[in-house]
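Moderator note: this is an archived Q&A kept for reference. The question asked for a predicted structure of one protein chain; the sequence and the answer are reproduced below.
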Amino acid sequence: MTTVNAASTKASIPRAILAHSWRLGLGLLLGFLGFGLVYEEYSPGNPADVDAVGLVIGLDILCGLAAFVLYPFRHRFPVPVVAALVLLSIPSAFAAGITMMGVVSLATRRKAWEIAVTSALFVGSMLVGERLAATVLIPVGEALAWWETTITALVLLTVMVLGGMYIGGRRQLAAAQREQMHSAQREREAQIHAAKADERTRIAREMHDVLAHRLSLVALHSGALEYRSDLSPEETRQTAGVIRENSHLALGELREVLGMLRDPNTLREDESARPQPTLDQLEQILADSRAAGTAVNLELEPDTRERLDALPQGTGRHLYRIIQEVLTNARRHAPRQEVRLLVGGGGGERLFLRASNRLDVGPREAPGPGSPPGSGLGLTGLAERVRLAGGEVQIEPEEQGEFVLKVWLPWGT
């Protein structure tokens, strides 16, 4: 960002010099024209007049040069600088051009009080300058009347103010368009960043769902190996095989998920890049839970069983993850209790899941060494998943010693 700003500053310096150069050049040209018009017809008749005119010309040029020096500071001190330019134009025809450009520049700011003050000062300076010229340079009878000078000043002032306000309006319009373009660009970038952050949140949720299930199985079976001395060699080999298989699966899935989290270009459209379980894998997690000692009873309503093949893939994936989280929570908080799952609905109806299990009776025991630690966020993540899927979730009070979870999902998720 610093490099870009430095490059932009270097690029703006030549533009600023060019902008001041052509304005100063135009003011110089107008100054020479005004100077020539004022002094071209004057021919003094005696030496005293020649000396007086010489002083007047010297003062004219000196004030004109001072006006050129002040003009570049009009943006920093707009009203004081333009007021000084107007006052310097009273004795100086050479400063008239740069003064008019200063008035136009002030009018581009489109501020009524600045324009009013400058206009009054400009008309007054023309009246005073005309009287001064009539006294020193213009023969009696050729000077303009005060009302003629006033009309001339008002005409010039109207042209300058209207021109300046038009230029200022175009500049404001261009600035507004640039700001609108930059705002749209910033909004687009914010949307892209939000989409990426949302996608990473979804991937992190997938990682939690996958690993919580696998690691809970590993923790339970490893606890059995550590504390049960009555296992036969065959049971020990089977338990170790479950631990090895789920550890390898967890590592593989973790590698896939972390690979996507490291990729800054991971977007929502890349659905095939992350692990996507389907309802066909449901029997596997049910078998894993039964092998870990949690009895699971899955019941499908007849209509739902017939329409299960037509279940959209997104809905099936959400149902898989919800059941996976339910079984993981049951192993954590009610390891000796049966989990009953009822799935119903279909077609034009919403898909319905009811999960229930008895709670532990008696005093709550401290988690054993083989019990997986709970994060306390399982149900929170489950409710968030259901909400994002457009469904509803309900957890019934545990008054009858039973935990009951009800979930409704749109069939066409």
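Archived answer notes: The mean pLDDT is 76.
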